[in-house]
Amino acid sequence: MHLKRLVIAVILLPLFYFYVTKLSAGYFLILLIFATAVAQYEFYSMYKIKGFLKYLGIVLGVLIISASYLSRNLLAELFAVSFLMVACIRLFSKRNPASSLHDIAPVVAAVVYIPGLLGYQVYLREHGADWIIFLYGCVWASDSLAYYAGSSIGKRRLYEEVSPNKTIAGAVGSITGGAIGAVILKLAFIHSISLPLVKAVILGTIIGAISVIGDLVESMFKRD
């Protein structure tokens, strides 16, 4: 685990930094499309969604991410159309109505959960590439400190039914790591991010807390 984190820090983080900051927003969109497709594929595999519904959901996810970049006015309609298309495919592909909601729900949920949330990074990128670095830097710092705090001093479980390995110490480490990461990144990008230091700490703390909740939600799906 230590080697993995070291590889990410030394190799992948600089590559990600130069990709996001040196290339245009269109290239960042391509990265989000790739991440969306892979994440949805994994989600559907986890819930054993197969056949046309699986690939329809991925295509719909790519369209929603693209709409976030091209025309935000279409997003509400795309979500509605996504549900209607998935429901219609289920209606005509299986005559037996049993478990129809069970078949439809994971497909639609993934469209909202993955591209629906990732699409906000398109808006963030419009305010400058450094905001993306700030976001991911805080998340990385949050995750790293959560891991080391949890593995070294963590004893009391945070939410054992959902994620047996997560501890209260790890959660505190995540929140603290987000705040520390925000301070470091704020000082590093002081000329490009117009954010007072106090607000940066608050924002980093919120990112750290959301990282904990996000991990628990993902674990909930995996346990299911």
What does this molecule look like?
With 224 residues, the chain is mainly alpha-helical. Helices cover 80% and strands 4% of the residues. A two-stranded antiparallel sheet has the order 1-2. The longest helix is centred in the C-terminal third of the chain and has 27 residues, at 197-223. The model has no long low-confidence stretch (mean pLDDT 92).
Q: Write down the Rg.
A: 19 Å
Strand order across the largest sheet: 1-2
**Strand-residue proportion:** under 5%
Mean of pLDDT: 92
Q: Judging from the principal axes of the Cα atoms, what is the shape? A: globular
Class by alpha and beta content? mainly alpha
Low-confidence regions: none
Percent in helix: over 70%
In total, the number of strands is 2
User: What is the helix tally?
Assistant: 10
Q: Separation of termini?
A: 26 Å
Largest sheet: 2 strands, antiparallel
Order of helices and strands: HHHHHHHHEEHH
Main attributes of the structure:
10 helices; 224 residues
Could you give a quick summary of the protein structure above?
By secondary structure, the protein is mainly alpha-helical. Helix content is 80%, strand content 4%.
Helix and strand topology:
Layout: H1 2-22, H2 25-46, H3 51-70, H4 75-93, H5 100-113, H6 115-118, H7 120-126, H8 129-153, E1 157-159, E2 163-167, H9 168-188, H10 197-223
Antiparallel strand pairs: 1-2
